[in-house]
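During the practical work, I worked with a single protein chain and the C-alpha cells that describe its fold, as given directly below.
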Amino acid sequence: MGGLRRRALGRRAALAALIGATACQRPDLADLSTVLPQVAADTPLRPLGTLEINTAQLGVDGLSGLHIGPDLTLTAIADRGNWCQARLLLAPDGTPLGLAFPRVGPLRDIAGRPLPRVLVNDAESLAALPDGSWLVGFERLHRIWRYRRLDGPAEPVDAPPELRLAPTNGSLESLGVLPDGRWLAIAESQRPEEDRLSRMAWIGGPGRWRRFTYRPRAGHDPSDLCPLPDGGALVLERHFSLTGGFSARIARLPPIPAAPGLLQGPTVAELAAPLPTDNWEGISAFRHGGRNLVAVISDDNSMFFQRTLLMVLAWADQPTA
C-alpha cells in the first residue's frame, strides 16, 4: 500500500475524482472472474489472462508481496499484517482460472502474537528462502523478519543499516533471494544523496550488506521484485499521475554483479491497468507446463473502488504449452 498512503491527501483526492470517470466501466464482481488483460504491444512478456479475486471471499485484502511456487502454491502478504496461501488454478494455456483451498492468518511478532493494527503491521514485501522459510519486509517500522512458518513467530534479521533513514512509507516494497543466496532489497522512495534519480538498493544479507543503487524509469517507484534463474531479477515499477491514475512497467535486471554499482534494465512489459485505479504491487516468476511464467498482483488498498487482480504473462519467444 506504500505508494497510495504516501502523499495520501493528493492521491485520495485524485482517486476520488477517478471514481466517477470509471464507475460505469467497472465490471460486475464475480466470485473469481476473468477480466481482459492490458499489456502494451511489442514487449517480451505477453499476457495470458487476468483474474479478479474477490477478497471478501478470500478473507483478506490489501495484498502486496507475491510468490508462486513450482506446485502453483500462491503466497501473498497484506499491508494490514496478514498472509494468505492458495492453490493457483491455471488452464492448459496458462490462463488463471481461480484460487483453491485458501488459508489466511495473521502475521505474528517474535513472541507469536498477532501483529497489532498500528504501525508495525505494514507488510509490503515477501521473499522465499531455500529452506522453505520466508522473509517479510515491513514499512513504517522498517525491518525484515524471518518466518519459518507464516503462522509462526517472527525472527528479526539484520536489515541494511541505512534503511532506518527511509521515508516512513517508502522503504522495503522490493525484496528477493537470488539463486546464489544473496538477498536483493530495493527501497521504494529512499534516494541516495549522490544520485537523486535512483533508489537505495542493497545486496548481501545480515552482516554482509553492500550498497547499490537502482535506477527506475522517471516518475516510477519500484514496488516489488522477483529473482530469475540466471541470477538477475524482474523489478515491478509503479507510476501514478493525478489525471491518469496507475500504470506500471516490468524491468529486467541482468545477473547481479558482485561489485557495487548501478542496477537498471530494459522494459519487458508495460502494464496499463484495466481501470486507472488498479495498482500493480507484487510480482513472481515461476515455471509451469514447460514455460517460464510471470504473475503480477494489484493491491486494492482496502478501498471499495480498487480491485485485486492477478495477471499471468509468458515470454513471447518460448513455445506454447
